[in-house]
Amino acid sequence: MFSQNPIMNGPNYSFNDAPPKANAPEGARQHRFDPYTDNGGSTLAIAGADFTIMAGDTRLTSGYSINSRYHPKVFKIGGTTADQHDATLVLSVVGFAADGEALKERLDTICKMYRYRHGKPMSVKACAQRLSTILYQKRFFPYYAYAILGGLDDEGRGAVYSYDPVGSYEREQCRAGGAAASLIMPFLDNQVNFKNQYVPGSGEGHALQERERNPLSRGAVEILVKDAFDGAVERHIEVGDGLQMMVITKNGIEEILQPLKRD
Amino acid sequence: MDHRPQAWGRPRDDVYGAYDGSYFQNSGPKFATQSPVVTGTSVIAIKFKDGVVIAADNLASYGSLARFTNVKRLRVFLDTTVVGFGGDVSDMQYLDRHLNELAIDESYENDTTETAAATTTSSSDPSSTSTQTPNNPAGSLNAANLHKYLQKLLYRRRNDFDPLWNHILVAGLDASSKPFLASVDLRGTAFTSPSLATGFGAALAQPIMRRYAATEEDAAKLTREQAVDIIKECMKVLFYRDARSLDKYSIAVVTKDGVELKEEEQLEKQSWAFAERIHGYGTQTV
Amino acid sequence: MFRNNYDNDSVTFSPQGRIFQVEYAAEAVKQGSVVVGIASKTHAVLVAFKRNAEELSSYQKKLFAIDEHVGIAIAGLTSDARVLSNFMKQQCLGHRLTYGRNMPVRGLVDMIGSKAQINTQHYGKRPYGVGLLVAGVDEQGPHLFEFQPSGMTEEMVAFAIGARSQMARTYLEKNLDAFADCGREELVRHGLKALKESLVQDRELTIENTSVGIAGVSKSKEDGSSVVEPFKVFDGQEVNAWIESVADDKEGGGDAAGEGEGMDVDA
């Protein structure tokens, strides 16, 4: 452009407003913004005969740093007020903390609107389906959070629904999520669902009889949860500081805080 | 020399190379901030018995160049809250203007001079009315409210892939007038702790602060003087070890009586004797 | 034929400078049954007289909880009120999400004021046919606001809107000075007494036709922060005690503590 410069072979000036396509070097921009981080931590939920226990540690990390020793991952959902005194559901989120927080607030708002419109709290089943939809709506820019929803079903039995970040979900007896999920889940399989436990002397091979599954008491589950987290704290650096437990019964939701190792 | 007006003010190709006009294009893909440019380093803060101490140095770096040496990175909001900015300075200035607007709106909203409640209560017993500082009448945004707002703002921007490249500390009091300290980063991740530090401070200052305030209970035992001393000690350690830091810094103390902000502090009692003993890298030949 | 050349829409002034459509909307408010609101230094209460279309039908709801700290009483078209109620609910939730606090009541009322005003200035739009009393508590304490279809909003110490509400207002004016220091129960009784003033002859307050809504705020004993008593609507058996306490034969009797100072109610 403007090659008819008055001075032959004089300097050229840039009038080019279109981006030069060919000469933009490949990968010229070195820092691309990564919208996600993993904030560590672990969660756990166990459904009993007439109660559900949701638990999570309270450490928030990024990389090798501990950002906070008290950052709850387990939340009461769908009460009519900010203090959630009349809530019936509990949600735990672990993964990217900002997404978890956003997810929690969206679900809470939806439950509040449901109560405003229908004059009654949302059932776990309905809320579980809705949570799946919310997660899937962001299928191509997901909430990077592993959610677990707990409550009591229509018959008053403990209910736990677990999710992947894009909304696949199922109802389960128990589930561990987050950094130490792979450490805790096998322990739960054995202790809650009695996997690999057989009646002594019942035979060999196919004749082996599985130990009969019977629902655990609340006290037993509370101990189980504490043991699971004590184990996780020993073996995973992103887990520790505090253990937050929510016990959902027909009388309401009780919150229990216990210390974990802070190393 | 090119005398045509079209060429005036244009960069010469032989001096600057062909001009990349992609910055001016307004069609096609939009390039949001992909990295910070002029940056501030650590902000550190610690809670004490009746408030929070927060500090940040006065340096704005351009890469490794100490570019601006008098940049104030602590900002007072409504006379009751201090916001400390680490990260991109232009984004900090954008947020500063935004917070100004918010503060003005908030002041209008809470102008109580003409409400009926004000007229009925004025005649009766004054003990029921709470103490109010002039620029922060009861009901205007406190530090906790402001932190929540900033978290939403930064999270929204990260969702748009157009982040505000900052890591922010908010220091002040919450709704029940207890010390409040919280952080939010460019992804909208928010958390609170008895002591907080951004950037290098998380590695260098936070361990020192946690020695004195490992828990909320410990922090609630600290006096104002102790807290200020801890922060000053941390600023010194940061200056020793963080190459993008400065010995001139700002420090603010927030209590229910308001904000005391000092913006021209100088690091005192430095001792570089330790540097003699550092071996293994740098310019030493032995 | 039209009675009036200037009342076909809400964008045309009459030569006298009136907008008839807006005035008609204000008339719709007067068709609704009466609601009363009072604010003290600690509480804001709403009381309402519910009507049923016929013996066999249920009573039309008059009080709505908007958020944990705000509620409204309506007089006029219930369906229009529901639109405003939904809008206010959304705003309160949104405010709580972004700031983590109760939405200031004045800000909320200003928003519905602006929303209603737009309807009075655009061709093809219709003003809301409903008036509201908005009662709530925020960090500045309890509030009571009046809202009219014109978009007018005003903070009140006590007020009544709806059919025959002038009588209730007269009662309120007479007892104005007592309200600021009233306790929760006393304030409700004042509201019910004002409500009774506006009843048609031979009508009584019953547990079927009376609603009470209360929001309150108090200072916590531990740290002096404000503790909110969430807005709650009381219906049916829950309002029985209050109704009985203001029954005609008990008036002036002072069956409850703190009652009776200067509340000479002429029947």
TrEMBL record, chain A:
PROSITE patterns: PROTEASOME_BETA_2. Keywords: Cytoplasm, Nucleus, Proteasome. Residues 1-35 are annotated as: Disordered. One of its GO terms (cellular component) is nucleus. It is found in: Nucleus. Residues 1-15 have a biased composition (Polar residues). Pfam families: Proteasome. One of its GO terms (biological process) is proteolysis involved in protein catabolic process. Its main location: nucleus. It comes from the Eukaryota. This is Nucleophile aminohydrolase. It comes from Bombardia bombarda.
TrEMBL record, chain B:
It comes from the Eukaryota. One of its GO terms (cellular component) is cytoplasm. InterPro entries: Ntn_hydrolases_N (IPR029055), Proteasome_beta4 (IPR016295), Proteasome_bsu_CS (IPR016050), Proteasome_sua/b (IPR001353), Proteasome_suB-type (IPR023333). The keyword DNA repair does not apply. GO terms for biological process: proteolysis involved in protein catabolic process. CDD domains: proteasome_beta_type_4. Residues 113-133 have a biased composition (Low complexity). Keywords: Cytoplasm, Nucleus, Proteasome. Residues 110-142 are annotated as: Disordered. It is found in: Cytoplasm; Nucleus. Pfam families: Proteasome. Belongs to the peptidase T1B family. Non-catalytic component of the proteasome. PANTHER family: METALLOPROTEASE TLDD, PROTEASOME SUBUNIT BETA. This is Proteasome subunit beta. It comes from Bombardia bombarda. The lineage of its organism: Eukaryota, Fungi, Dikarya, Ascomycota, Pezizomycotina.
Automatic annotation (TrEMBL), chain C:
GO terms for biological process: ubiquitin-dependent protein catabolic process. InterPro entries: Ntn_hydrolases_N, Proteasome_alpha, Proteasome_alpha-type, Proteasome_alpha1, Proteasome_asu_N, Proteasome_sua/b. Residues 246-267 are annotated as: Disordered. GO terms for cellular component: cytoplasm; nucleus; proteasome core complex, alpha-subunit complex. Keywords: Cytoplasm, Nucleus, Proteasome. Residues 6-28 form the Proteasome alpha-type subunits domain. It is found in: Cytoplasm; Nucleus. Belongs to the peptidase T1A family. PANTHER family: PROTEASOME SUBUNIT ALPHA/BETA (PTHR11599). The 26S proteasome consists of a 20S proteasome core and two 19S regulatory subunits. This is Proteasome subunit alpha type.
